[in-house]
Amino acid sequence: MSLSSRPTVLITMPGADSYRGFCLQQVAAAYDVVVIDSVPPTPEHQLYVADFEIADPYDEQALLAAGRALAERHALAGVMTWTEWMLVPSARLAGHLGLLSSTPEVMLACRNKATARTVFAREGVPSAASMKAGTLLEAGLATDSVGGFPVVIKPAAQAASVGVIHVDRGEDLPCAFAFARAGAARARESTEVLVEEYLDGDEVSVETVTFAGTTIPVAITRKRLGSLPYFEETGHAVAAGDPLLAEAGPVAVAAVRALGVEFGVCHTELRLTARGPRVVEVNARLGGDMIGRLVELATGIQLARVAADIACGRAPDLTPTRHQAAAVRIRYPEVSGTVTARHLTRGFAAGTPWLDRATWLCEDGDRLVLPPEGSSFTARAGLVVVTAPTAALAARRAERALGHMGVDVAPDTEEQIAA
Fold first, then answer.
1. Which domains does the chain possess?
2. Distance of CA 134 to CAs 113, 190, 195, 218, Å?
3. If we measure between CA atoms, which residue out of 259, 276, 246, 272 comes closest to residue 112?
4. Alpha helices, DSSP H only, in 365-407?
5. What three-state secondary structure class fits 330?
6. Over 135-168, what HEC string results?
7. Mean pLDDT for all residues in the chain
8. Does the global pTM surpass 0.90?
9. pLDDT tens, 275-292?
């Protein structure tokens, strides 16, 4: 049994995550951290982890057994995760251990976009017209039902834009449906495919905090996307006091409330259409791609720490302590291939006070695979995070920093592409 006077929070993590070291750091500043993971903590993560159990986090019985083992050694105060695919298992684990959490049913509703669309329509939350499609014929009929081309075809229960594709003409529908169905086949809670109305306009997300049923929007994230037909995210920016929060925040709050989320941090994606903000999806966890770090740099609010507070039944402190902007840009290769060299301008990081980090997400010899064969999990080479007094300057600094990071790849051979 742990003798520490600090509360202990259990975090479920499915393998090493290059993006989440800052989350562990935030939580470990106030809590003893124990984890369930499929691998031992990395040397970086060991600085923040007091104890761990190795288990397949997607095997419910193994997860529960690991949770019980940690509960025998520590007085657990809460269970949390920042991983999309762990939302439902973590909710079940919390319930099994008698700890605070939204219910598994609520997490399932957030995970399944078909369920969420039904809830949004019933509750009057502005969203997109959507229909399930089990076959190519049904996809064609659904396209007509949601208003015709352009449409978006996507898995109902994936994440990180896996299997999501834009279609603007009928001849592209067969390949697009096959692409979405392949992505859906790798999902855990549902293998359904949706055909949805395409929402035009810029994409943003609202980062919200919900405690005891009250939801507060704390930040707007403005997103940069790659070229259609895919929806690869290439960057994000957060500015304290963004005026868009007043317009988009209430829509995100309505979506979170409609799905029944009563506790936790949510990342709600919206499109700013000509008819106003409309919800793309609600992710009942911290935003990925360093968004939590951007919120911390811009406002001082530590969303991972906030999530831990809530998991342990503590009202979070959402008082801003900073007023600036921060941005992240992600380096992709020009073509799919094997990494032969990585470049970061010598002395740039050490001599640039506004550069928070320049992080490689690949090693020499790794294979980077762009869509349609790959996804954000296989395509990204590295990222940079910067700060600035204003959003406009943060954007310029991010582009400048990204220009100092390069990656060389040997293009895939025909045999590799075919494989």
1. 8-101 (3.40.50.20), 129-197 (3.30.1490.20), 201-323 (3.30.470.20), 324-419 (3.30.470.20)
2. 15, 12, 10, 39
3. 259
4. 376-379, 391-403
5. strand
6. CHHHHHHHHHHCCCCCEEEEECCCCCCCCCEEEC
7. 94
8. yes
9. 999 999 999 999 999 999
